Amino acid sequence: MLIDEHREGTPIWVDIGVDDADQKESLAQFLSAVFGWQWDAGDGEMGGYTFGLMNGRPAIGLGQTPGGTGESVTYFSTSDVAASLAKAVELGATGIVGPVLVREFGILAYAVDPVGVTHGLWQAESFKGFGVVQEPGAAAWFDHESASPQAAADYYRALTGHEVASVGGGEMVLRDGDTWIASFSPTSGVIPVGWSPVYVVESLEHTRELARSLGATILVEEQEVPGSRICVFTDPPTGHHYTIIPPAPA
Fold first, then answer.
1. What are the E-state strand segments in 93-188?
2. Torsion 224-225-230-235 (CA) sign
């Protein structure tokens, strides 16, 4: 699905921060081989930040920051990042960066939610975030895993203005009317606490074996989830995890 605008309070972008240029190059090569992303560094004035494109559309960001661990950050769309950051703090989050104007692209901020997970806030100007979703090589879903999914769900419900519904097993979903946006899950112990984007791939089996052949560690070979299956693996350069899912049935 091609997309140019994002509704208020929905995931608008994901990026990854690594420590140095060698790690960044290794990770970019791995991700290109697995997901098919092509990399665009723009005009070279982005401090090493690179956009991963799928068929010319933005799918992910890759940055270089001293101390970067390969962890991904999920950003939520807002029309007023300063107000959203203030609200986050009021709800028990800790503001750690921003608001910061990023050239003509937009305004960002970072906060740590009440259960200890970092998330971003993005007020789009010229850069609108994801240009493609729910297709092979793009994010389709976002899962927040922690020991306190109810507390997490309460926080993001109040922050975004969307609704939360229980789907059983201690899991909840954030929804905008009938549209499901994200989920909140109890800690599995398999992957670190945090936000986990879920990426669509043409074939779960092929991508899993390709990632394995490139040095990935498979954390979850295959697991049934409502309506589909997932696999989870870590990349060789950083050890950060990725969750993949096959396309939804037509």
1. 94-102, 106-112, 118-124, 139-146, 163-168, 171-176, 179-186
2. negative
| 179: CB partners within 8 A, 6+ apart | none
- Cα 9 from chain centroid? 14
* Residue in 200, 206, 210, 165 with CA at minimum distance from that of residue 183: 165
Q: Evaluate whether 46 touches 58 at the Cβ level (below 8 Å).
A: no
Environment class of residue 3 by beta-carbon count within 10 Å: exposed (0-12), middle (13-18) or buried (19+)? Answer: middle
- What pLDDT, on the 0 to 100 scale, is given for residue 189? 81
Q: Which residues of the chain carry a pLDDT beneath 70? A: 1-5, 42-47, 250
CB count, 10 Å around CB of 82? Answer: 14
Q: What is the CATH number of domain 11-124?
A: 3.10.180.10
Give residue-wise pLDDT tens across range 98-144.
899 998 999 999 999 999 999 999 999 999 999 989 899 999 999 99
Superfamily designation of domain 139-245 = 2,3-Dihydroxybiphenyl 1,2-Dioxygenase, domain 1 (3.10.180.10)
- How wide is the angle at C-alpha 181 spanned by C-alphas 149 and 55, nearest 5°? 130
Domains 11-124 and 139-245 are alike in CATH topology? yes
All structural domains of the chain with their residue ranges: 11-124, 139-245
DSSP class of 25: H
In angstroms, rounded to a whole number, what is the distance separating the alpha carbons of residues 160 and 138? 23
The one-character DSSP state at 2 is: B
Retrieve residue 69's tokens: 């661990």
